[in-house]
Amino acid sequence: MSTCATASRDLSEPLAGTAATASTWLLVEQPGPWGTEALISSRLDRAVGRALERAAEGTGVRVALIRRPGRHADLHTGARHRVFVAHTLPGRSWIRTTALDDPAGLLGLDFAALGAGDPGGLTLRPHTPAAWEEYTGDPLVLVCTNGKRDRCCALLGRPLAGALTASGVHGTWEITHIGGHRFAPTLVVLPHGYTYGRATAQSVKDVIEALRQGRVVIDGCRGRSAWERPGQAAELAVRELTGEDGADALTIARTEGEAPVWSVTVAHRDGRAWRVGVAQVA
């Protein structure tokens, strides 16, 4: 059976610079079926989903639904919704988590503050001292599995999520949509925000082990979500050129130009810098 993922692989379509852009991720557990636009076509209250989407616009926060892997994902939790907020900028990445009876409380969040990396934005509606906790477990592995969005994600993503869970990767969740379904199975790893495509269970385990040690695996990497796509491609080009694998070693200092050509300055924490030409190819 031919799929977009098969065609992309056969064409050796480059992965670099294709990750979704988000400085901060808001992940809301919502078991059960997901529709094409999951925030407004799932068991989450439609009005809440639409309001969260509007609240996040222009703030750098990306809202997505998550669920535990499994054939009957809606049976894997009670009434409470696990929530994660993850910020992805180098040297400032963090994850906070809580559990809520009603996701409508998330409308009290200060989305602008969270997009800027300030955990002080973790307020709820009505204002309550919710038990936001620092998440200190293994990196979260969020595998795109929404078959209503694209069948590749269901056909390839769900088996990967299941295999990771079965092999003891406890931070594995299914996620509604991270873009790039033609690179399925595709996933994002938080808090660093690196996105990977054409993944296997072994390649994901290698990524997790590297990140535990503060290192980045660039094989199969689509980019870091903290950057716009030209910056994602430029960062990976510098890593390939220099062999630098420190997760927090590089930042995007400047991006000039507009589609289809950009000049991106990539800065190293030791003071070095590279100017990288990036071109968008149809």
Explained architecture:
The protein is an alpha+beta fold and 282 residues long. The chain folds into two domains: 1-226, Glutaredoxin, CATH 3.40.30.10; 229-282, OB fold (Dihydrolipoamide Acetyltransferase, E2P) (Beta Barrel). 23% of the residues lie in helices and 26% in strands. The chain has six helices and 13 strands. It has helices spanning 4-10, 46-56, 111-115, 151-166, 201-212, 229-242, and strands spanning 24-29, 61-67, 81-87, 94-100, 133-134, 140-144, 172-175, 187-190, 194-196, 221-224, 250-258, 261-268, 273-279. The strands form two sheets. The chain has a ten-stranded mixed sheet with strand order 5-4-3-1-2-7-6-8-9-10. Helix 2 (46-56) links the parallel strand 1 (24-29) and strand 2 (61-67). The longest helix has 16 residues, at 151-166. The protein is globular and about 50 Å long. The model has no long low-confidence stretch (mean pLDDT 91).
